[in-house]
Structures are given as structure tokens and as C-alpha cells.
Known about the structure:
Layout: H1 5-24, H2 38-58, H3 65-93, H4 104-145, E1 151-155, H5 164-167, E2 173-174, H6 180-184, E3 195-199, H7 209-219, H8 238-241, H9 255-262
Antiparallel strand pairs: 1-2, 1-3
Helix pairs in contact: 1-2, 1-4, 2-3, 2-4, 3-4, 3-9
Amino acid sequence: MALSATEKGKLLKAFNKVARWTFDNKKTSITLDDLDNKTVKGLINEINSVLQDALQAGITYEIPEAMLQHFNKNIYVFSGAKTYTELRELSDLLIDDKGEIKSFSKFFKDVRQVHNDYNKAYLESEYIFAQQSAQMASKWVEFEQDGDEYNLQYRTANDSRVRYEHAVLHDITLPPSDPFWAKFFPPNGWRCRCNAVQVRKSRYPQSDSTTANDLGNKATYTVGAGGVNTSEMFRFNPGKQNVIFPPHHPYLKDKEVTKMLNE
Length: 263
């Protein structure tokens, strides 16, 4: 993904306004009501615009209008929850080690890293994920129309960049109705380049479902802080669940936030 200079400028401007609002209002804590603030909504809308572009770029097959509406809503909620997460980090940075409000120059210097992380590095990965998630969801619509007439085959990019965890899934071949595809239909991680294609049943032997699902669980298992499996959130199928981003993404863990954004 390469954001245009205009898009980068809009994101930075929106973020700077939120940072200024946080400082001026001495927002040492963030509430749900803050998501309704005009300044905060400006950042939500800029992030949403970028990710909506990814959605449109990723849809390669015609999808039902209802599905598209679900995707649009999911991306908006994700953008709002992402902004809420940024707000909480800004709030934490407002106070210095002595428990006092920082000077604006010190605060503004410290929060720049939040922008660089969330609205540059993370947003790039999220854009790529949204684009591929949309592409695979639209393919799923096509696959479902044929039922189990064909099998689906999991394929990696099959090059030196493929992560080992995904390489073990290469060539797994199962009917669309198999539970494997409900959890391990690509993408299965950030910057995942895996794919699924229809194949004739007579051409490729069908994989063992139990073995395939065990490999899928291992492929989406990464131990993070506190022993939490940080890859488990990728166990979803965007086409079956009508979402672009994983329902268990850390941004979306606060159900009160997602409930408000869904209203």
C-alpha cells in the first residue's frame, strides 16, 4: 500500500487535531462519549476512508448488496475502535512521571510515535489485510454457489517468503462444507498472501479433515504476552461471517465500544 501525499496529509492533520483536543481538554481518561466528539470523528472518518478504499480494491467478484453493507459497517466500527485505542494511548501520554500534565511541546513530541505506529505502520498492514480479506470474501461467494461440486485447495505463494506455519497448509484439499474453511480460509495473518482455489475432485486427492484442522490450529498459534495466542483471532472466514476484520481483533475487544459504534 502506498498512501498518496494527500491521504497522508489528511491523516496527520486529523491526528494532530485529536492530539490538541486531548491536551486542551486535559483528557486524562477517555469515555465512550468522546467517540461522538466532532474532532475525534474526523480521525475516525479519515481512517475509515483509507480502509474503505482497500475494500473496493479487493472485491474481485460481484457480491450481494447486503454483504457489502456488512463490510462497510465492519470497517467503520474497526476504524472507530482503532481511534479509541489511539485516544487511550494519547491520554496515557498526557501525564509525566511525576503525575503532572506535560507541556504541550513535550506531549506533542511524545504522541508523534502513536501516529507513526497506528496511522502508518499498522494502517499499512490493515489496508493490505482488508484488501485481501475482501478479495477472499468475494471468492467465497462464488464458491458457495457451487456447493461441494468442487473441492477447495489451499495454496500459499510457494516462495521463500512463505512463513513455515502457512507452508504446511499448502495443497490441503477439502470440500467447502468442511469445518476447515470456516476457520482457516485465507487470509490467516498480517500480510498473508495465501489463496484458495476450486479444483476438480478427480484431479487432486482429498485431504484428511482432522489432520488439516490440526495443522490449521498450529498455523494460527503464536504465543504473545501473558501466554495469549495472538494469531487465534485470524481463525475466521470473511465470506461466511460477513466481516473484513477478525471479530476478535484487540481493537474490538471492548464490547461497549463496538456496540456504540454499531448504533
